[in-house]
Structure formats: C-alpha cells, structure tokens
C-alpha cells in the first residue's frame, strides 16, 4: 500500500502578520511531503502573485463581505468578525467534507489567531487541530494565566503605579506598560474586540483532549515561557523562526520570497542597491509594519530624530499610512509631507515598502526602529540586528519588554510625561545612539542570530519539533464511527479514550471488529442504506452481515502504520490516588517506567458520584448469596458507631462482645 500524503488545512486571518508565518509554515509542510490547502479571505487571496505561490499549495478563499479588504474605519470590527466567522465556518466545513469525498481527507487543521471557530469545526468533523500562535510564547502565557486565575490581579494594573506581576515560571516581572494592550481597562474602541476573542481562543483549547499550540519561536529564545504552563494543558511546541530558509541556514538559497512579495510589495530593488553603497552597520532602518499609523506630530519627532543622528537611514512610509493619516486628521495639509522632508531625503532613503527580511539581512543595516510586532521583532533577532523598540499596541508592549530586559538586544523608547503618548525626538535619538554604539547589545544580537539558525537547520530543535508533530498527526488514525454511533445505539457507558501506539499482533483490529459485530447483533434490518458488506475471518455466523461503509479500510491502514508506531516507555496503571502516594509514584525514573495513578476503581456511586446509579461491582457478578437486608439493619444505627476488626477468627469474637457496641460481621461459609 502506497503511503498516503498527509493533508493539512491552514486557515488564517487575512492580515499580513498572520499570513506571513502561516505561509512559511505551509512551505515547510510542503517540503515535508504533505498536501496543503490554504484558506483565507478573498481580499487576501487576490493580493497574491500567482508566479510566487509555492508549488503544491492549494488556495480556498471565501468572502468576508469586504473583498477589497477591511479597515477598522469601514465599520464595526465585531460585525466584521461575525461575518468572517459565518463565511469561514461554512467554507471549512465544505472543505473537510470535500476532502473525504475525494479520498484526500484532511489529516490536521491548523489555524491562526482570531479564528477559534476553526477548532470547533475541526472537532465537529473529528479532525485533529492545532493553533499556530504567531506571537511569542510569553504572550500566550500571559493570556492563559489571565483567564485562569489572574484576571482580578491584572485588572488592578492601572490603579496602582507600583503594580507588578510575577507569573509562575515566567522569565521577567511585568508592569502595566509591559502587558498586551488588550488586557488594559483603558483600551479604546474598536480594539475592545481583542480580549473576548482571546478568551474564546483559550477556552477552545481547554475543550481538547490533547491541545497543541505551534509557536513561532525557538526553544533557546523562550525556554522558560515554553515551560511556564503545564504541558498537559496546552502543549507549546516551538517551530520557528518561520522565515524563508535563504535567510536562515541557507538550505534553499532560492527560498527568499515571503508574503510581502506575494502581496506585490517587492519593489525593493532600489533599496538593496542603495544599502550596498552604505558602510557596514551604518544604516538606521525604520518601519512600523502593515497596520500601525503614527500621528503627524509623532512623524515630525521621528523625522527630526533621524536628522539629528547624522546617520544614513531607510524609512518605510506606507501609502496606507499617508492616506490613513490624512483621513484621520481630516486635513489635506496633514498628509505626510513633513516640513523637514527635503532634508530627510538628502540624508536617507524613503520608500513605500520593501522586503523587510532581505533588508534586515543586509550587512549595512545597523539598527531597526520598529513597532515591535512579533514578525518584525523576530526577523530582527534572526538577522542579528539590534532594536529600538517603539511599541504601539497588542503584543508589541510585551515584545519590547523582552527585547530590552530578557534578550538584551535593544532599548525601549520612553513616552514623554508632558505630552501623553508622544515620544520626543531627543528620546528617539538617545535610543538610536545607545543601540548603534553598544558592543554588548550587538554581541547579544549576534548570539541570538546564531541560535536561531541552529534551531531552524535540519536536525535543529525547531526542525525536529515540526517533524515530530507531523509524524504524530499522521500516525494518529482512529475509526471515526465509534464516537458517532455510540450514543444513538445506547452504548454511552462504552467509552474509548485512548490511542494504541504499541500493537503486538495483527489480529487486534479484527478482534475489535468481531466484538462490535457480535455485541450489536447487527442484522440487515439494523442499518438503512446498506452500501458494503464486511467479512470477518473466523465468524461464520456474522460473515455476511452488512455495516455502514467506512471512510477507509481500517485493517489495511493499521497494517501499514504498525511499523511506524513508536516504542513507548512502559506504563503501569495503579489503583491509587496521586495525593496518597505522591512520593512513591515518583521514586522510579519516569524515563524507565511510568507509574500512572488512576481514581479509585470503585463503582461511581461510591467514589466520584458522577453516576449515582452505578453501584454494581464484581461482587455482584459473582452472585454471592445475601443473608438478610444489612443496609436496612445499618440505617437505624448511630453515625460512626460500628466496629471493624480484622484479627484471628476466635479472638475477633472474644473482642467484640465486651465492647457493648453494634457490629456487622461478614463470615464466609468456608470460615464457619
């Protein structure tokens, strides 16, 4: 049997900060031999340059009601997200159904932020799913703890100037200015949509049996943050940096394209030519991403700072920023034609866009003045370029904290106390000079560059993590019929909640099928619309009984994959409570033998009381004869008045009489 190619469905929010890492992730899946379907809005799909789309990538676009692209000024963000969800749910469901009909069923659905509904659809269709987290692991930790016990603490952050937060296993202590902006009570409309959306995202993971979060980071960069949360909750898997390989380990020198190029923004020939004429590490690169728009006042301060440094610079001012600022301030004179523009053009180069990762990889770039979006921050770290952190909103404030205090690859600007929200030109100049002249910062940046390349290369930690994830997804095959039909057949008490990874002989699955057929006593009248007859070897009476057509041949699939099933650490299930024998359970090295405590193996009515009707035990199955109604006799006795004594037979009788207490004595017939 030819090995089937795994099929991944990637669903992403139509923002470039989401599409960039999702597309790089898709390219890695394609290189690993998978089929990939990429689903996003029509507006995002239209921007892609067909000539630059990786071979093997299939697009499935859907309309979100804004086929020319949505901007917050176009209307209510919540209304847009609702429409996006409605269209997305329908499209993803159709894609999953189509994949089954075409014999290329989706192996795993991967989705980015702001679309937790994708996981709900995957769960409905019994398809494994994983979240592609496009921010640092530290930010995931903050949101996770906020919705799991720390909400009241965080909500006080703006009331007390001395407020700080120390999370379990978290690498730094946070102040209010370090938190993601969505957590701040003062977050203005329309950005209030963020926090409820992240809450749904975290809660969706909580509904999964084994939630996995693929994080665009690498282990050495965020080792503490990746382990801050118990892996049994969501498992954080570092698979970054998700950047073109030509700028990492050079494994594929032709892989230089990113979604910036796909969006038709790769007009950077003049940028590279200009950079090549500059001295090494001399250029200040300035860019505030694809969304952030600075006020005209802030633009003036930034322009003055660049002039004052007397250094060459490359400044990206997007067309959208010009238009957005003009519309926002409602004054044509406010368009970004600053009074100092002529002087700026003499000293540096101002463009509307460039391929950022290519610019950052150029040896002439000495520092990066950035809004600290995670893609920009990570690209700078991976390129070994120091940062001037100029955060605006969402995760950018936390990223700036990590850059300055944890990774020590840059400095963060300070907002003017007199003019709220404004960073003065003197402060910007100070930060640029510190970064450009600090050998320590430059050495730190170089070290993180080396570690990023090490993680991404073949055999590196992120490469191994992604390979392991794909193998686990591919090998996680189950028969989808059991959970679907169990409730309708009245078999709710039969609950399968494990996956067999180590099988010993080829008859296991056949035995399971025999059990199903014989237990359900399936006849021709039991199932309508019969489409196939299954024969089971060795069961003559049932050999021609019809069943519903399966999605695949389970026995063939099992035989194909049994050689790939991983060798596992021996595990022993022990009838004991964790709290009762915590030391004993940990006394043996878990790499050699894993002891797993399970709840007391008693009828549910007498243990967790989830099922008051479940009182029967094996004693009832052995049909011991009952002599008298002992429960009726016990009822009138006082609470805790009975004696249980386990001594020798004669001694027990002699000891019970003098107590003058009631007793219930069980004597087996053979003891009499």
From TrEMBL:
Keywords: Transferase. CDD domains: GT1_Gtf-like (cd03784). The keyword Transferase applies. It comes from the Eukaryota. GO terms for molecular function: quercetin 3-O-glucosyltransferase activity; quercetin 7-O-glucosyltransferase activity. Belongs to the UDP-glycosyltransferase family. This is Uncharacterized protein. It comes from Carnegiea gigantea.
